[in-house]
């Protein structure tokens, strides 16, 4: 199991072993959805958000 | 009793004075499940000799009847869940019967007699104000161990202080900023007595600004954060819950990273604080119903660069983190018990209006 830093809140994230590029994971601290850009070493970025009409 | 409880051989006797009210019932519920307490007495003037279960149906399993507040037993810890103004008149008597007093009213929250003159109706036992310690461990953990007079905080003040505190801890705010606080609260804040405004036909469905300005809890917020806030409270159609939205206008630029660092720094190691700020899922910000019945507080934030504003959200159960849960939490720390003892309920999902 490897670790990476959440790009949203900075918390340490434990990554599972069979991580795949393109996979979306969520941070246990802030809940941000993160896209796995690369696996060796792991690189994460904020996942594109689905737009929702929260103001409706 | 769990094996990892630090003083697992110790059982403390507890009395709840004012046990028939809502927070009195919550205290009894928490004490009944607490590994280090046994309930010796619950008093109620109105329900003397009636079973506790006749008033609090969730406590029907308790073999306990209310007794008169004139006949206090001697106990290790006395919890007072009486209306504001009662405890200050009885505090000498309480200490004749208990080593530690935990008061849920406002009577010992503020530091000075002058504050009581300004915000309440004065104080009849001001010599105790130096002795009391505010019960919220996220704020007073260092001062609580050994304290024998513990003052559980106001629910609206607790929600607000928990939301804003990290910004002061991290020096994002210094005390001269403008802060507007809007709190929405449930009907249980009004107590079991109620009144015309609390009857179901009147209160159902409302969004009523019940304290548009000048709420007494401003005193606690100012005492602990060091600045006055513009504070408005709405009564909304919930039973449990207090949700504070704080509009904060910092003097300089702040990044999302600064905010996460501040909130993680203040609360990452706190057993009862949950950070909820954006992310995925349905519940992206603090939500009262996610903490209903628990001692948890949720806090979160959003950055509004175009208006140079930080919006801070916090949610608590007003009777738990905002009263009885905070009282037990503070007492646990003061008495050297396991900090989380008796407070392990983590809430329900899904759940209806709490």
Describe the secondary structure blueprint for this structure:
The complex is a heterodimer of chains A (56) and B (354).
Chain A: E1 2-5, E2 12-15, E3 24-26, E4 33-39, E5 42-46
Chain B: E1 12-17, H1 22-32, E2 37-43, H2 52-55, E3 66-67, E4 75-80, H3 86-97, E5 98-103, H4 113-119, E6 133-134, H5 137-140, E7 149-151, H6 155-169, E8 178-185, H7 200-203, E9 207-211, H8 218-225, E10 230-236, E11 242-249, H9 256-267, E12 273-275, H10 288-291, E13 297-304, E14 309-316, H11 320-335
Parallel strand pairs in B: 1-2, 1-4, 2-3, 4-5, 5-7, 6-7, 8-10, 12-13
Antiparallel strand pairs in B: 8-11, 9-10, 11-14, 13-14
- Please describe the biggest sheet of chain B, giving its number of strands, its sense, and whether it closes into a barrel: 7 strands, parallel
| Number of structural units classed as domains of chain A | 1
CATH architecture of the largest domain in chain B: 2-Layer Sandwich
How helical, in percent, are the residues of chain A? under 10%
Distance between the termini of chain B: 30 Å
Low-confidence spans of chain A: none
| % residues in beta strands of chain B | 15-25%
Q: What oligomeric state do the depicted chains represent?
A: heterodimer
Number of strands of chain B: 14
Major β-sheet strand ordering of chain B? 3-2-1-4-5-7-6
- Please identify the structural class of chain A as seen in this structure: mainly beta
How many domains of chain B? The number is 2
Reported for the largest beta sheet of chain A, the result is:
3 strands, antiparallel
**Rounded Rg of chain B:** 20 Å
Q: State the distance separating the first and last CA atoms of chain A.
A: 42 Å
The overall pLDDT of chain A, averaged over residues, is 86
Q: Give the amount of beta strand of chain A, in percent.
A: 35-45%
The CATH architecture assignment of chain A turns out to be Single Sheet
């Amino acid at each position: 199991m490897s670790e990476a830093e959440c790009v949203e809140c900075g918390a340490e994230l434990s990554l599972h072993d069979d991580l795949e590029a393109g996979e979306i994971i969520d941070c246990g601290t802030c809940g941000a959805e993160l896209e796995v850009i690369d696996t060796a070493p792991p690189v994460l970025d904020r996942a594109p958000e689905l737009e929702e009409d929260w103001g409706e | 009793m769990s094996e990892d409880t630090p003083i697992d051989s110790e059982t403390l006797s507890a009395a709840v004075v004012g046990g028939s009210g809502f927070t009195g019932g919550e205290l009894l519920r928490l004490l009944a499940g607490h590994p280090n307490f046994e309930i010796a007495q619950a008093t109620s003037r109105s329900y003397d000799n009636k079973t506790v279960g006749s008033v609090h149906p969730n406590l029907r399993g308790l073999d306990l009847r209310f007794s008169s507040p004139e006949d206090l037993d001697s106990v290790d810890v006395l919890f007072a869940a009486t209306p504001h103004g009662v405890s200050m008149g009885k505090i000498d008597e309480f200490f004749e019967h208990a080593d530690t007093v935990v008061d849920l009213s406002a009577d010992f929250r503020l530091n000075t007699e002058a504050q009581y003159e300004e915000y309440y109706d004065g104080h009849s036992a001001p010599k105790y104000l130096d002795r009391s310690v505010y019960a919220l461990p996220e704020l007073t953990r260092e001062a609580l161990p050994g304290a024998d007079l513990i003052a559980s905080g106001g629910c609206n003040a607790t929600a607000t202080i928990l939301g804003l505190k990290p910004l002061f801890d991290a020096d994002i705010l210094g005390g001269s900023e403008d802060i507007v606080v809007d709190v929405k609260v449930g009907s249980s804040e009004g107590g079991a007595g109620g009144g015309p405004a609390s009857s179901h036909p009147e209160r159902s469905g409302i969004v009523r600004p019940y304290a548009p300005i000048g709420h007494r809890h401003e005193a606690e917020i100012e005492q602990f954060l060091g600045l006055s806030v513009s504070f408005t409270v709405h009564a909304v159609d919930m039973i449990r819950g207090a949700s504070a939205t704080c509009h904060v206008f910092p003097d300089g630029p702040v990044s999302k990273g600064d905010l996460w660092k501040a909130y993680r720094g203040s609360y990452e190691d706190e057993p009862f604080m949950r950070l909820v700020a954006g992310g995925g899922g349905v519940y992206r910000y603090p939500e009262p119903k996610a903490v209903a019945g628990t001692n948890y507080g949720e806090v979160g934030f959003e950055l509004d660069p175009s208006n140079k504003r930080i919006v801070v959200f916090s949610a608590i159960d007003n009777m738990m983190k905002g009263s009885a849960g905070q009282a037990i939490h503070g007492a646990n720390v003061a008495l050297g018990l396991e900090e989380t003892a008796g407070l392990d309920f983590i809430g329900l999902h899904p759940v209806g209006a709490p």
